[in-house]
Design brief:
Layout (H helix, E strand, L loop, with lengths): L2 E10 L2 E11 L4 E5 L6 H9 L6 E6 L2 E2 L10 E4 L11 H11 L4 H14 L15 H14 L4 E5 L7 H18 L2 E6 L2 H7 L2 E6 L2 E6 L1 H6 L4 H6 L4 E3 L2 E3 L4 E4 L5 E11 L2 E8 L2 E8 H7 L6 E6 L5 E3 L1
Parallel strand pairs: 3-8, 3-9, 6-7, 7-8
Antiparallel strand pairs: 1-2, 1-4, 4-5, 9-10, 11-12, 12-18, 13-17, 14-15, 14-17, 15-16
GO molecular function: ATP binding
InterPro entries: AAA+_ATPase, ABC_SmlMolc_Importer, ABC_transporter-like_ATP-bd, ABC_transporter-like_CS, Mo/tungstate-bd_C_term_dom, P-loop_NTPase, Sulph_transpt1, Transp-assoc_OB_typ2
Protein name: Sulfate/molybdate ABC transporter ATP-binding protein
């Protein structure tokens, strides 16, 4: 099911949360709404879900206007950052809840719940209470519950934001695999650039209530539309009059390139971060350890910096 947002505006008092936003989410795609806190991405998701009514514009689901359709009739699955589980119900009862209130036959519910628990790898925890699960397991339970009613659209609002970094990484890999199995049109909100780049088919960058750019992860990273997208979607540093990716700068010892002097070298695992001073400006350069060792870099050394021409740059 495709989603189309046409000219949507939303205010809260004098605060403009969404300003003439138009976005199309393709059928079966996994789309990230990415942006800073307060940028409007969660409001946009809530408008799509029907949890917020837009002041202007329309939302279409599968080509039909859904702007005034109540939440319960949109057939949308919604997963929040906080799981909102029924604490007194077991995992399988939590997953079955939506089917039970729709009065599905008991045999159908049992079969569907078993299928979903297998899909999210929670079969062995079916009889446990939510409090007996880890944070990652509770989030998988929440996703299973959302999928139980076979939604046309799955909406996730920072689903992994409350989890630690390692669990978050594991779950986003799992979410990508899950999406490839169920193929439901999915939109998720995140402020984590790595999460969006790793998981999404398409990214919508939202800032100050407006859409800055829409495209695949590669398109946005390699060809940012403006300085905000360049800086927000990965590291960036100023080289002369151009904003570039630090790992796209090469260090030269032969007198070529923009001259500077190394002020700091920091090694973080395989990566070497080199800070080069150029006329009062600090330029960050990222090298792999082998390249840095081959150059014999040291603090105080005079070097030249050259930008590789076929990668992201934004004139400033």
């Amino acid at each position: 099911m495709s989603i189309e947002v046409r000219g949507v505006g939303k205010r809260f008092g004098t605060f403009v949360a969404l300003d003439d936003v138009s976005v199309t989410v393709p059928t079966g795609g996994l789309t990230a709404l990415l942006g800073p806190s307060g940028g409007g991405k969660s409001t946009l998701l809530r408008v799509i879900a029907g949890l917020e009514a837009p002041d202007t514009g329309d939302v279409l689901i599968d080509g039909a206007i859904a702007t005034d359709v109540p939440v319960r009739k949109r057939n949308v699955g919604f997963v929040f950052q906080h799981y909102a589980a029924f604490k007194h119900l077991s995992v399988q009862r939590n997953v079955a809840f939506g089917l039970e209130i729709r009065r599905r036959p008991p045999a159908e519910i049992k079969e569907k719940v078993a299928e979903l628990l297998h899909l999210v790898r929670l079969e062995q925890f079916a009889d446990r209470l939510p409090a007996q699960l880890s944070g990652g397991q509770r989030q998988r339970m929440a996703l299973a519950r959302a999928l139980a009613v076979e939604p046309r659209v799955l909406l996730l609002d920072e689903p992994f934001g409350a989890l630690d970094a390692q669990v978050r990484k594991e779950l986003r890999e799992w979410l990508r695999r899950l999406h490839d199995e169920v193929h439901v049109t999915t939109v998720f909100v995140t402020h984590d650039q790595e999460e969006a780049l790793e998981v999404a088919d398409e990214i919508v960058v939202v800032n100050r209530g407006r859409v800055e750019q829409v495209g695949t992860p590669d398109q946005l990273y390699d060809h940012p539309a403006n300085e905000f997208v360049m800086r927000f979607l990965g590291p960036a540093t100023q080289l002369g009059d151009t904003l570039v990716r630090p790992h796209d700068i090469d260090v030269r010892l032969d007198g070529t390139g923009l001259p500077g002097r190394i002020s700091r070298i920091t090694r973080v695992g395989f990566e070497v971060r080199v800070t080069v001073e150029q006329g009062g400006d600090s330029v960050l350069v990222l090298l792999d350890r082998a390249r840095a060792d081959a150059l014999g870099l040291a603090e105080g050394l005079s070097v030249g910096l050259v930008h590789a021409p076929a990668t992201a740059r934004v004139a400033t």
